[in-house]
Amino acid sequence: MKRLSVIIVTYKSENDIYDCLNSVWQQCDIAKEELEVVIVDNSPECEPMFGKLRKMYGDGIVLIHNTHNGGYGQGNNVGIRRATAPVILIMNPDVRLATPFFHAAVEAFEKDPQLCMYGAKQMQTATMVSRNSFCCTYMMNGYIRTIMEALCNRLDWYLPRYCYFSGSCFFINKEKFEAVGLFDETVFMYGEEDDVHFRMIRRYGAHFTYDTSLRYIHPTHDRKPNLTYELTMAKVALINNEKNGYPRRKTLRNLIAMCNCRLWREQLKVRFLHCSPEWRDMLAEYRKELEKLKS
Predict the structure, then answer these.
(1) C-alpha dist (Å) from residue 150 to 90, 155, 255, 273
(2) For every residue of the chain, which 3-state class applies, written as one string?
């Protein structure tokens, strides 16, 4: 009987998937026969990668070539529907598990039927801590959100009612997730976590656990400024919040406040630390675009 199903959605991810799976098996602290790994590939052509994976793992993993590239959420939904375990681990292909990872989470779900989600501590490298293990909901004043998010991540102070886990790696109760509708497939990519958290908490209450002893590496510290990414995240936040009854104007106000905080920080870094102005300049453009949406 499977106790845990790991779902990994890939898209031209051959450079990542082998190390990702290697970390899964290296950090597997439950019986191998209790673990199920499901890979859903959204790429137009998957056979070269799937052929190598079959040679490496045989029937030890489930390989699914998606019928179309419906996005991150849709791909995960395909994997979840195929999964047979009661507990799901959603995992990005560029994630590397850094500690024994499964036993504590699976036992927590088995001991507590009310438990909805279980999060772990995100790292940038094996020794560099990330500040993105969880984020605060966009249904929160942007200035308060920025301060609270930074402080809570620094202190590992997780507040279940207000904080959602990074979508790159988290455990979730399959039955409960199916009952709230799984990922929203109208959202192609990015920003799914806040929506999932909201729907789970609305139906089942704040039954979430954050375990700092479980660590995974998800390197994001070298990302470059990307206005398209920022605007996509903003538009997804608007869609999700409006769907869940939170007014569009409030979401925009929160987004602008958050942008102001980030922009002030970058302006200080440019002035006093002589950092590159590329982040500052991108955020200034981002704020202009948010103001246009507001009007």
Answers:
(1) 24, 9, 16, 20
(2) CCCEEEEEEECCCHHHHHHHHHHHHHCCCCCHHHEEEEEEECCCCCHHHHHHHHHHHHHHEEEEECCCCCCHHHHHHHHHHHCCCCEEEEECCCCEECCCCCHHHHHHHHHCCCCCEEEEEEECCCCCECCCCEEECCCCCHHHHHHHHHHHHHHCCCCCCCEEECCCEEEEEHHHHHHCCCCCCCCCCCCHHHHHHHHHHHHHCCCEEEEEEEEEECCCCCCCCCHHHHHHHHHHHHHHHHHCCCCHHHHHHHHHHHHHHHHHHHHHHHHHCCCCCHHHHHHHHHHHHHHHHHC
Would the pLDDT of 221 be above 80? no
User: What is the tens place of the pLDDT at every residue in 55-110?
Assistant: 999 989 999 999 999 999 999 999 999 999 999 999 999 999 999 999 999 999 99
Residue 191 to residue 51: CA distance in whole angstroms: 32
Return d(Cα 99, Cα 101) in angstroms, integer: 6
pLDDT tens profile 103-139: 999 999 999 999 999 999 999 999 999 999 999 999 9
The β-bridge relationship of strands 134-136 and 208-217 is unpaired
Of 247, 264, 220, 234, the C-alpha closest to 131 is 220
Q: Specify the residue for token string 């450079």.
A: 15
Q: 0.90 cut: is pTM over it? A: yes
Whole-angstrom CA distances from 118 to 87, 107, 133, 217, 292 are 10, 11, 12, 17, 38
